[in-house]
Amino acid sequence: MKVAEIENDILVIKNREDEKLNGRKGALVKVLGCGLCGSDIVKLTQHRAKQGTVLGHEIVAFITDINSDTNFKVGDTIITSHHIPCGKCEYCKNGNVSMCRHFKETNIFPGGFSEYVFVSEEHLRNVAYLKPKNLTNDEVAFYEPLGCCIRAVKRAGLRQNSTALVVGLGSIGILMAQALKAFGMNVIGCDLITSRVELLKNLGIEAFKVTEMCDSIKADGVFMTSGSDKAIPTALKYVRDGGKILVFSSTPQNFGYANNEIYYRELTVLGSYSPSPADLKDSFELLKNKDVKVSGLSTEYNLENVQKAINDTLDNKILKAYIKIAN
Fold first, then answer.
1. 77-126: per-residue pLDDT in tens?
2. Cβ atoms of residues 250 and 224 within 8 Å
3. Which of 80, 165, 266, 276 is the S-S candidate for 128 at Cβ 3.0 to 4.6 Å?
4. Per-residue confidence (pLDDT) for residue 257, from 0 to 100
5. DSSP for 170-221, written as a single string
6. Phi, psi angle pair for 312, to nearest 5°
7. Tens digits of per-residue pLDDT, 185-219?
8. Would you say residue 276 lies in a domain?
9. DSSP string, 43-75
């Protein structure tokens, strides 16, 4: 089977022995496609994954073999996330599921940028769903990233009708803005790129270029979905006194926050990383009901061009890449 694995800081297509169940509980799936996540790019460009690693986790896949006590069967097209919390440790009990050791250790194997993947019984029971018939493969691939955004919305804990500002309107920013709206917030988005501002406006959400923002805007919560060094000053400028800043992106190393502002203005700074099964269930429902619109957000590439997809994403030529692997 073909896989795209890390070799000398790029993804290279290699042939491996076909993945098989070999008596394991779970399902062997043929990957139809996989979204390219920002975390994939970070792992590759910041050397956070070993040579030979197969990246990718936002999969849509077709079950070809199964050994499971669930209701899934051969022929089903499914979506799944890659991590599962244990539900028993102190992290899980306190709602910090993405810090759970079991959460970090679980994964799909070898990775989404592969023709075949093993999905465990635990995945099937907790985070897998049948693909809704009213969604295309590239649309339903937003299941896991939207779940990440929903977790961020919940962690921020804003009251309904609060004002939420999304800084950075890449694909995650567009999802975040729609998730906030779905949870009853008054949402504003901002970005430096005009086309992204217009895209959010076309989805019925107020948006501005950063350079055209009114100084009087004060948000109860600012959601930083951009890793730009300009995102932190923008967040500090537009958050109200006593407000919250939710960090949903890696930021430049050695770039700190203005601690005096956090202290004197009583700001709350939170991070949010990855979703729980409950967040993923909410994501599934929002996508299925089309309460969050994702049509046209991604650009399709084949597996052989996955490195080009990464380069185009880094160059801001596209909003989101969907890697088509099979029909």
1. 999 999 999 999 999 999 999 999 999 999 999 999 999 999 999 999 99
2. no
3. 80
4. 66
5. SHHHHHHHHHHHHTT-EEEEEES-HHHHHHHHHTT-EEEEGGG--TT--EEE
6. -65, -35
7. 999 999 999 999 999 999 999 999 999 998 889 99
8. no
9. HHHTT-S-TT-B---EEEEEEEEEE-SSS--TT
Integer-rounded Cα Rg, in Å, for the chain is 20
Residue 279 domain flag: no
Q: Is the dihedral of CA 294, 29, 282, 303 positive or negative?
A: negative
- CATH of residue 247: 3.40.50.720
Q: Which amino acid is at 173?
A: G
- The number of beta carbons lying within 10 Å of the beta carbon of residue 126 is 19
Q: Judge if 109 and 227 occupy the same domain.
A: no
> pLDDT tens for residues 129-159?
999 999 999 999 999 999 999 999 999 999 9
Domain count, the chain: 2
Report the SS3 class of residue 277.
helix
Residues 6+ apart with CB under 8 A from 308: 301
CA 296 to chain centre: 17
Same domain, 52 and 155: no
| Helix, strand, or coil (residue 289) | coil
For residues 189 and 249, membership in a common domain is answered with yes
- Give this prediction's pTM: 0.96
